[in-house]
User: Fold these one by one.
Assistant:
Number 1:
Amino acid sequence: MKNRIRFLRTQMNLTQQELAEKAKIGYRTISDYERGVSTPDAETLTKLASVFKVSVDYLLGNTDKQKAIKLKVANQDGTITGIEYELLNKVKGFTTDDLEKVLDYVDYLKSKKEEKKDEK
């Protein structure tokens, strides 16, 4: 990941300071990522992916495809939150049957939320 962050930053002709400002994180943090001293959390990965216009999977080295896939989600800008990303990561590799069970449970939770809303 450290090489991808440095590669993308240099491709965009950005200094570490400029990248830090765009991602709204400390410039020393960028240096730490590029040296492999630390790794970004899910929220920071999302910010960096947005700045670079690549997928989080590309930053993590899970794919060589740079282009981010736009998702139709609640956020108007097409991004996902850290917890949404974490959920997607957790179901990665599930079988279709397992995913259908997850969706059934999500539907159940949504219906319970609607019932509570209707009671008020």
Note: The chain has a mean pLDDT of 83.
Number 2:
Amino acid sequence: MIRLTHKSKLKYIYTGHTATPKEWNYDENLPKKPALRNLISNKLTNAENALFEIEKKGKPFTLDELTAKVKIKESDITFYQYAEQVIKDEKKAQKFGNAEVYKTTLNVIKTFTENRDFKFENLDLKWLKEFETHHLNKEDNTVGGLNVYLRIIRALYNRAIQENVVDKEFYPFGRGKYVIHSTSTGKKAISKESINKIRSLDLSKHPSLWHARNYMLFMFYCRGMNFVDLAFLKIKNIVSGRVEYIRTKTKRKYSKSFTIKITPQMQEIIDIYQGGKSKDDYLFPIISRKKADDVRKDIKNELKTFNKYFKELGKRAEITEDTDKLSSYTIRHTWATIGKQMGHPIANISDGLGHADMHTTQVYLDSIEDDELDKMSEEITG
């Protein structure tokens, strides 16, 4: 082990190697094997270099900061290796969607770097600008797509800093460095008139479209519920005339819970699907398998089908908006947009959508009563 001492405090860093008493030279207080001697020498050099780099800044530092710096100096993890490990960790945590996004981004990076691995320190401002140019020079690639990849790269870098894989002084994002600019994605919402047109369609001879409309309307009635949350709704989530659930997206973050009053419109749809089911059964026939990876695939396939049928519903209803842009996200944006147009406070709408990460307004948002949100939702969807 390497012992670090600072202001009468001690910390030890394990070298990852051991030696038996027979392998130890007690006179020199070193291992007899040359390989182990070299390893210890290299680790001591890394520790000394880390101390030198901290001291040359001329600022006070703690033993924890020195320890983190030494561990970073010892880290030989490359970007590819770290990304692959994160993908494994996400899968182990059953965050298959995240794992897939990380994997896609890593594949794009491998194409850009021609499968040549690199250290995090090499991912600097120049690298990011070259990556940007490489992406945008390809036909059909968009700034929006570029930003998705850049946000994943930034997330990996932040995670690597937290895990002492790379020093934060190399961080290439932020003011004065590389800035990921937001882009306008155009109008996502549709009007209440368009919702009513779809609601009025005669779909008695089109069962697939009829189911898709039921899903669409139920998500709209539930404050723009996400399709994944719709898929995971179970009979047991229907409690005393309310739909109660925790957003799948936030379960591992801050567990934002929803409690939504069941309106007659919602009850009509619930009655269609809940017959003969037990409390642990899913309300809607979206998930058909049990294994976590299969569940993810079921939802992904059903979402793709839903988006296709939603576009068809828009065309049949002859709505004025671009039907090719309709998706499950449209419903969420529509609920919020109609609420804003009707004069409801943006803070209330944010709370209705579950935007609990809005720190500046969270204290106020937490004080909003459920009946106030219910009244607002009924007014929007009625």
Note: The radius of gyration is 27 Å.
